């Protein structure tokens, strides 16, 4: 190991051990976008306040996500002796005093908020965290430090195996690094699965200089936040991963293209880069080895197609982020027409693990063809919106039940979206599909970057398709007529169907668009119709009902449903009239009525007067049997 | 965010940026972070600094959803357009907000007191359906909550 690196690591380890032996209890609060949305900052303020009031001598730290996004704020309490650590969830500010009283003051636990014991022995009331159902089956490698280290402190990373992989990479040299990554079988984590080692080798063998690395941190798929969890939780893992790739590909500069919607991730990535530079891990003559490499955190500005690698390159170059026409590929002519390699955040983040522990260890985590672990987020009609790290291979049904806590209500599941607005929809009778790439490809869909969204029978697939097509239309860069005009046309047809104007030929019209959009330049247009294509196949009867019977079984489509007063005399009706934003509810002599024309179907009246107002089909289904 | 900047102030603000080095987005972010939006003058200054045309800069400003050509309202309600929020009734909330505020998405009141913005999912889907009021999450909203919120924002001085 490089002597300078070894001494940096040794110092960080000593500091970590000294802090633990300091004889003070420590509260470590998860501080990320999800926990902040649920009050983590107020929790930290309350901890400080209670500690001051009770003169408690404690340390307060921050850390990344345990994945329990739905149960934030989470925090751990470590005893003063440093031998016992317990994870708590739902610790809102108002619960802080009781928690500190029971733990720090009395030296016990607070079982009502406890999730599990991280370090130390289980009790009758609190199991070991590793035996908690949410942790069973997870293999937290990328997320290993989340919950433990402070993402804003490089020393914490260094004290937990950080930069050891870089040390090995320096000893190996470019060709051996590429071989190790190829042997591991690491595939691109954005969804394509293309071998990362091959991409790095394209760059290594390119002739022009300088070469660039780009980390795609645009995470534009709504419903996916795996990259955010990693950047907010362990940003040094990404810095180290890009450094290893830079050694493999002989790159001089790296860009981290990060969406502006993630300001905390931007701040933490920037801090991580600055701290790495201060330690001599970035810049010129890194650790005295003669290698030069530096990173630039580049903030996006809100455009989905900038997640497409050549759109991204144009965006950094200073143009509209319109995807280019390939070839040339980025490895030949990318940033400023120089050789460039684009990988997803999670792809780079695996490199330190492969270097540190070897490709054989890394790929042996499961029998699946896709090697290593993958981070997923689950959301939608589930009880527990969460983030997990799993080996490829479990069944969708099992992860839904085990990690996402099952369906949100007693309504049956209707289906799920396997990864982003271009990926398609899958009906619930296929919940036995595994989380691997092939089964989706075979069905004409794809498993994307890790954001899986479940929907139940309260969702309408025509409406879902209109949503995804509206998204695709909004985000089309406008270069190709097929994509720009095709998505527009699809939205028109879908809107018409939703407002009761579906007619003969609509299936053919939509199926035509499915065929034509594949002639677009980039994946955005090529895959924009995937949701419609897959929904038409799997949910056809629902579409027939919309078009022929003018009926939406989920009662979602605005033109096919109506709100109506069902029971007069309910005192809540006055409130309903009051809340209605359009004046659609009229009252005469104590009798209420909803006028259909001004009603925008916002449903507020039914929320305040649920037993007096009903939602019904606008046109009753024809009696004639189909 | 204060008074309108002078051309000289704008020039100083972006003086460190250079042509041909990927500095267009950083320069535009700098302007917007300082003044809240990107004015016509700012577009010309940035174009001059980066040795390009105002047309190209303007083309970029309008391409990206984050860049504004109008000063931000005092109170901005951003509506989450993401899938979890939609499945939890987000579309009904949008309708409610648009009608109560009498604004389309992207619109603002004439006096710039309030505006309605299209927000993207940031993975706080556990709070769906949600909006952000000046960046702060208001989650698990009903349409009725959204109407009350919009009425409050509209009535506030
Ligand atoms: C419209 C569109 C949006 C995309 N968005 C992202 C994104 O947000 N993040 C990402 O890593 N890749 C995204 N991609 C895929 C990238 O083009 C590219 O394939 C990927 O960054 C390669 O990384 P990997 O090989 O490590 O998976 C997108 C592709 C398209 C067509
Ligand atoms: S397919 Fe759509 S997003 Fe892609 S280049 Fe063509 S118009 Fe642009
Ligand atoms: S659904 Fe909304 S617009 Fe229609 S009557 Fe009820 S409150 Fe009024
Ligand atoms: S869908 Fe609204 S936050 Fe994710």
Instruction: Round the Cα radius of gyration of chain B to an integer and report it.
Output: 18 Å
CATH class of the largest domain in chain A: Alpha Beta
How many structural domains does the protein architecture of chain B include?
A: 2
CATH superfamily of the largest domain in chain A: NADH-ubiquinone oxidoreductase 51kDa subunit
User: Helical content of chain A, roughly?
Assistant: 25-40%
Which structural class should the secondary elements of chain B be placed in? alpha+beta
Are there runs of chain A of 5+ residues with pLDDT below 50, and where? none
| Net shape of chain A | globular
CATH topology of the largest domain in chain A: Rossmann fold
Report, as a whole number of angstroms, the end-to-end distance of chain A.
75 Å
The quaternary structure here is: heterodimer
Structural class of chain A: alpha/beta
The tally of helices of chain A reads 24
| CATH architecture title of the largest domain in chain A | 3-Layer(aba) Sandwich
Number of strands of chain B: 4
Compute the CA-based radius of gyration of chain A.
27 Å
**CATH level 1 class label of the largest domain in chain B:** Alpha Beta
Protein described:
The complex is a heterodimer of chains A (626) and B (157). Helix content of chain A is 38%, strand content 15%. In chain A, 55% of the residues are buried. The longest helix of chain A is centred in the N-terminal third of the chain and has 18 residues, at 3-20. Chain A has a 5-stranded mixed beta sheet with strand order 2-1-3-4-5, with helices on one face. In chain A, strands 11-10-14-12-13 form a 5-stranded mixed beta sheet, with helices on one face. By secondary structure, chain A is of the alpha/beta class. Chain A folds into 5 domains: 18-131, Glutaredoxin; 154-362, 3-Layer(aba) Sandwich (Rossmann fold); 373-456, Ubiquitin-like (UB roll) (Roll), CATH 3.10.20; 461-549, de novo design (two linked rop proteins) (Up-down Bundle), CATH 1.20.1440.230; 558-617, Alpha-Beta Plaits. Chain A has 24 helices and 18 strands. In chain A, helix 7 (174-184) crosses helix 10 and helix 9 (226-233) crosses helix 10 (235-249). Chain B is an alpha+beta fold and 157 residues long. Chain B has 2 domains: 7-63, Arc Repressor Mutant, subunit A (Orthogonal Bundle), CATH 1.10.10.1590; 75-155, Glutaredoxin, CATH 3.40.30. Chain B has helices at residues 7-13, 24-35, 40-49, 54-63, 83-87, 90-101, 143-155, and strands at 75-80, 114-119, 131-133, 136-138. Chain B has a 4-stranded mixed beta sheet with strand order 2-1-3-4, covered by helices on one side. Chain B starts with 6 loop residues before the first helix and ends with a helix. The model of chain B has no long low-confidence stretch (mean pLDDT 96). Bound molecules: flavin mononucleotide, iron/sulfur cluster (2 copies) and FE2/S2 (inorganic) cluster. FE2/S2 (inorganic) cluster binds at residues 80, 82-85, 121-125, 128, 130 of chain B.
């Amino acid at each position: 190991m490089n002597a300078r690196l070894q001494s940096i690591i040794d110092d960080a380890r000593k500091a970590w051990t000294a802090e633990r032996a300091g004889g003070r209890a420590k509260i470590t609060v998860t501080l990320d976008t999800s926990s902040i949305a649920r009050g983590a900052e107020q929790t930290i303020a309350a901890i400080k306040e209670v500690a001051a009031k009770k003169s408690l001598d404690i340390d307060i730290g921050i850390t990344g996500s345990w994945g329990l996004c739905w149960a934030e704020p989470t925090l751990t309490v470590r005893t003063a002796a440093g031998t016992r650590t317990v994870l708590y969830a739902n610790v809102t500010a108002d619960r802080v005093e009781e928690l500190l009283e029971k733990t720090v003051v009395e030296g016990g636990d607070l079982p009502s908020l406890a999730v599990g014991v991280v370090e130390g022995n289980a009790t009758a009331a609190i199991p070991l965290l590793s035996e908690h159902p949410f942790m069973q089956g997870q293999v937290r490698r990328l997320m290993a430090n989340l919950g433990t280290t402070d993402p804003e402190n490089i020393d914490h990373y260094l004290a937990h195996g950080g930069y050891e992989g870089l040390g090995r990479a320096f000893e190996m040299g470019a060709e051996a690094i590429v071989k190790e990554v190829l042997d591991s079988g690491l595939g691109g984590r954005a969804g394509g699965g293309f071998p990362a080692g091959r991409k790095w080798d394209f760059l290594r063998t390119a002739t022009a200089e300088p070469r660039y690395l780009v980390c795609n941190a645009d995470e534009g798929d709504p419903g996916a936040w795996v990259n955010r969890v990693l950047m907010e939780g362990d940003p040094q893992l990404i810095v180290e991963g890009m450094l290893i790739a830079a050694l493999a590909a002989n790159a001089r500069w790296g860009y981290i293209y990060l969406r502006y919607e993630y300001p905390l991730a931007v701040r933490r990535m920037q801090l991580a880069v600055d701290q790495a530079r201060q330690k001599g891990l970035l810049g010129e003559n890194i650790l005295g080895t003669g290698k030069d490499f530096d990173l630039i955190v580049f903030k996006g500005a809100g455009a989905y197609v900038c997640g497409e690698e050549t759109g991204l390159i144009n965006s950094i170059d200073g143009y509209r982020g319109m995807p280019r026409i390939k070839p040339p590929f980025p490895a030949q002519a990318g940033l400023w027409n120089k050789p460039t390699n684009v990988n997803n955040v999670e792809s780079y983040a695996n490199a330190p693990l492969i270097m540190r522990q070897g490709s054989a260890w890394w790929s042996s985590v499961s029998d699946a063809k896709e090697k290593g672990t993958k981070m997923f987020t689950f959301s939608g009609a589930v009880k527990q919106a969460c983030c997990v790290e799993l080996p490829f291979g479990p069944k969708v049904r099992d992860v839904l039940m085990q990690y996402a806590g099952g369906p949100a209500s007693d309504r049956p599941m209707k289906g799920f979206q396997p990864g982003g607005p271009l990926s398609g929809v899958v009906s619930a009778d296929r919940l036995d599909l595994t989380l691997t790439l092939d089964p989706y490809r075979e069905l004409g869909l794809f498993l994307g970057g890790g954001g899986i969204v479940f929907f139940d029978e309260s969702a309408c697939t025509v409406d879902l398709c209109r949503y995804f097509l509206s998204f695709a239309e909004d985000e089309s860069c406008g270069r190709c007529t097929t994509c720009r005009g095709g998505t527009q046309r699809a939205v028109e047809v879908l809107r018409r169907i939703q407002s009761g104007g579906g007619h003969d030929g609509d299936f053919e019209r939509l199926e035509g668009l499915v065929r034509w959009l594949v002639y677009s330049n980039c994946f955005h247009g090529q895959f924009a119709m995937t949701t419609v294509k897959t929904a038409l196949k799997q949910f056809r009867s629902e579409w027939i009902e919309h078009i022929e019977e003018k009926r939406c079984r989920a009662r979602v489509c605005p033109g096919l449903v109506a709100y109506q007063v069902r029971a007069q005399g309910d005192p809540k009706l006055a409130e309903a009239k009051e809340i209605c934003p359009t004046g659609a509810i009229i009252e005469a002599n104590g009798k209420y009525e909803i006028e259909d024309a001004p009603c925008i179907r916002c449903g507020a009246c039914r929320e305040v007067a649920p037993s007096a107002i009903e939602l019904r089909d606008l046109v009753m289904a024809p009696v004639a049997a189909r | 965010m204060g008074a309108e900047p002078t051309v000289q102030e704008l020039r100083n603000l972006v003086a460190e940026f250079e042509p041909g080095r990927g500095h267009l987005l950083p320069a535009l972010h700098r302007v917007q972070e300082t003044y809240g939006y990107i004015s016509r003058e700012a577009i010309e200054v940035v174009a001059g600094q980066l040795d390009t045309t105002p047309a190209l800069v303007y083309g970029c400003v309008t391409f990206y959803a984050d860049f504004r050509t109008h000063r931000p309202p005092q109170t901005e309600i951003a509506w989450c357009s993401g899938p979890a929020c939609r499945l939890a009734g987000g579309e009904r909330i949008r309708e409610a907000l648009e009608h109560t505020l009498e604004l389309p998405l992207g619109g603002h009141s004439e006096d710039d007191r309030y505006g309605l913005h299209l927000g993207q999912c940031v993975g706080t889907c556990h709070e769906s359906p949600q909006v952000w009021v000046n960046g702060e999450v208001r989650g698990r909203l009903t349409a009725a909550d959204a109407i009350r919120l919009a009425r409050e924002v509209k009535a506030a001085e």
